[in-house]
From TrEMBL, chain A:
InterPro entries referenced in this protein's UniProt entry, alphabetically: MoaE_sf, Mopterin_biosynth_MoaE
Enzyme Commission code: 2.8.1.12
Alphabetical UniProt keywords: Molybdenum cofactor biosynthesis
A Pfam family per the record: MoaE
Name the UniProt record assigns to this protein: Molybdopterin synthase catalytic subunit
Automatic annotation (TrEMBL), chain B:
Family: Belongs to the MoaD family.
Protein's UniProt name: Molybdopterin synthase sulfur carrier subunit
Provenance organism: Abyssalbus ytuae
SUPFAM superfamilies in alphabetical order: MoaD/ThiS
CDD domains on file: Ubl_MoaD (cd00754)
Length: 146, 78
């Protein structure tokens, strides 16, 4: 199950893409539990401005190495059947999905911890950058608090 | 010759995404100090990667010919 996969998607992760991912796993009969995390772009208010979109970019060569390490760590630590990480690049509007983590295992006990671990590792270790674009076209750079 | 790459708010501050610098066999800390002064990067929180590996102590690393140095702002994925 462990193989290099596409992570970065241009633009938002659509509900259709998520639905298709679930459908693809219905042919894998050893799976008994899925867990999904979806990150959505929030309309943060900064003083008088409101975020209308985030424009994501990354350091591709390093991001791919880091994601491969995260994948290896997750498979070592948890009894998973498969896992997928998808992250948007480019512009994602508020209310749209920019981050999709999909973890599958024979039993449910593994999938909760694995999902949280993977989400935290992606947020803290993968060189992805976000430009928060305000309604008035100004911008600021997003910094992860946690 | 080395390659230096800039990302996110750092690329905005330097007004470039990468450049080649004709140097090698210097301390990474010396190179970073030079770039911070050149582009006024003092107010920024930055991380440094050499050949796609994050460096914890820039004092301990020597930059070699053909290295790729990346100056990275805080990560914001998710």
């Amino acid at each position: 199950m462990k193989k290099k996969k596409t992570v970065f998607i241009e633009g938002p992760v659509t509900p259709q893409f998520i639905a298709d991912s679930i459908a693809k796993h219905q042919a894998k009969y050893s799976i008994g539990a899925h867990n999904i995390f979806l990150g959505q772009v929030r309309a943060d208010k900064v003083e008088d401005n409101t975020v209308s979109a985030i424009e994501f970019s990354c350091y591709p060569e390093m991001a791919e190495k880091k994601l491969e390490e995260i994948r290896e760590k997750a498979f070592e630590k948890y009894n998973l059947t498969c896992m997928h990480i998808y992250h948007s690049l480019g512009k994602v509007n508020v209310g749209e999905i920019c981050f999709f983590v999909f973890v599958s295992a024979p039993h449910r006990t593994q999938v909760y911890d694995a999902t949280e671990d993977i989400v935290n590792m992606v947020k803290s270790e993968v060189p992805i950058f976000g430009k928060e674009i305000f309604e008035n076209e100004m911008h600021q750079w997003k910094v992860n608090n946690n | 010759m080395i390659k230096v790459k800039y990302f996110g708010m750092i690329a905005e501050a330097t007004a470039r995404s990468e450049e080649r610098i004709n140097t090698a066999n210097i301390k990474l800390s010396t190179l970073i100090k030079t770039l911070v002064e050149k582009y006024n990067l003092k107010p920024y929180t930055l991380n440094v990667a050499v050949n796609q590996h994050l460096i914890n102590k820039i004092e301990d690393v020597t930059v070699k010919e053909n290295d790729e140095i990346a100056i990275l702002p805080p990560f914001a994925g998710g």
